[in-house]
Amino acid sequence: MTKFNRMEEAGAGIPPVTEPARQYYFMERAAEIIRRKSEEAGRPLTFCVQTFGCQMNARDSEKLRGILERVGFIKSEDESADFVLYNTCTVRENANLKVYGRLGALRAKKRENPNKIIALCGCMTQEEEVVNTIRKSYPFVDLVFGTHNVYQLAELLVRSLEEDGMVVDVPDATKGSIVEELPTDRKYSFKSGVNIMYGCDNFCSYCIVPYVRGRERSRRPEEILDEIRRLTKDGVREVMLLGQNVNSYGKGLDEDIDFARLLARVAEVPGVDRVRFMTSHPKDLSDDLIHVMASYPNICRHLHLPLQSGSTRLLKIMNRRYTKESYLALTDRIREAMPDISLTTDIIVGFPGETEEDFEDTLDVVRRVQYDSAFTFIYSKRSGTPAAEMENQVPDEVVHRRFPHLLRLVQEIGRERTARFTGQVKDVLVESLNEQNRDLVTGRIMENAVVHFPGSASLIGKIVPVRLDACRGFYYLGTPEF
Ligand code: 5AD
Ligand code: SF4
Question: Where are the beta strands (DSSP E) in 247-390?
Fold first, then answer.
């Protein structure tokens, strides 16, 4: 593609050293280049950001889109766009394979449009092996960056436009600062994720996240609260506090604060009608947190509490630092304080050495806790993690026998449990028009269940009372009560 000479750039000068000023400088530089390229092409240039994985990535993608819009690209959902960016996940091997498959398909599109820029970021790129594969097998990729320099997109884009060859800039995940206050393009005008911490220090033995996301770093409470105040002024009514392990929020900060106290302060911000958070580690969930949740009516009655396994023996090898009994005691305490709360979880089947007995323990916890829903995963070997080195990997046929059994149980219980509000009138935050039937709108109750009911687009972003007439598996059909 056409490379631009640095000296010819309008606005070229010395880039500021401090952030975020430096990125605003590069946004201007990038905007000038994009304006010129778009004049050459005789049409606006488009971008498409594809997100894989978790809520943290979804939030990062809003920041990436915000920067791309600021520099003058027009948003598109189509991968024929001039700039295509994959924000990747690597938690399971499948996630990587999916990205390689999609990149293969992009190769043909790049032939059609040689000016196309293809970029890759997110957790996958933090693995050296992945970067080597990209260099070798996908040389048409223009830009590769990591989880820690999402905020630098404008600077990296300018480099990619000016330099020949693939630009690879993946900082070490164990270091790095947190730079916020850059433009974002929120998917929803009325709700937003807010990062409260980055990274994970838990090193569960199967998990690659601590290696690709680095050490835990908490944002300062005032910075978080300021962001939330700004969001509410901008029409946001629901915030989702995000972190790999929100319950250990505050470690390493000068302020004397923990997650329970942060949550209470967030719940008190005027205009915050709903607060959610994700993800909680059972070992760090304090009674203070349960107390705060029960005390504020605007804290959503939903906890995602990953179990992983119900076997105390396996939990120890997984390095989860709780037992079957302590997990059950915790869910009992939560239910005692908030009987109607929704509990959801993550479960892994086929962790190395998992016996029938271990698996039975998992089923037992599922029956006892009565989850509203659960994400069930087949164990995936991630190189570099301790579990990948374990010799007693469970044969595929055993895993494939156990997995559907668990899935059936989880669905059966989920269906029954979700139906508990049938006949009640509940507040629903309306999120969108229904995808199948445009005479219906879709929203969520505080407990996270989805509700479809008759209504129009004017309701989107409003919180309205709805009678939950019938539960159809994992969602309700309702009628407006207003
Ligand atoms: N294999 C399967 N599932 C995994 N998870 C994390 N690592 C692995 C792995 N190696 C699951 C856990 C976690 C969720 C986000 O992904 O259940 O809670
Ligand atoms: Fe992975 Fe465990 Fe950290 Fe969750 S808590 S991100 S499963 S290491």
Answer: 274-278, 302-304, 342-349, 373-378
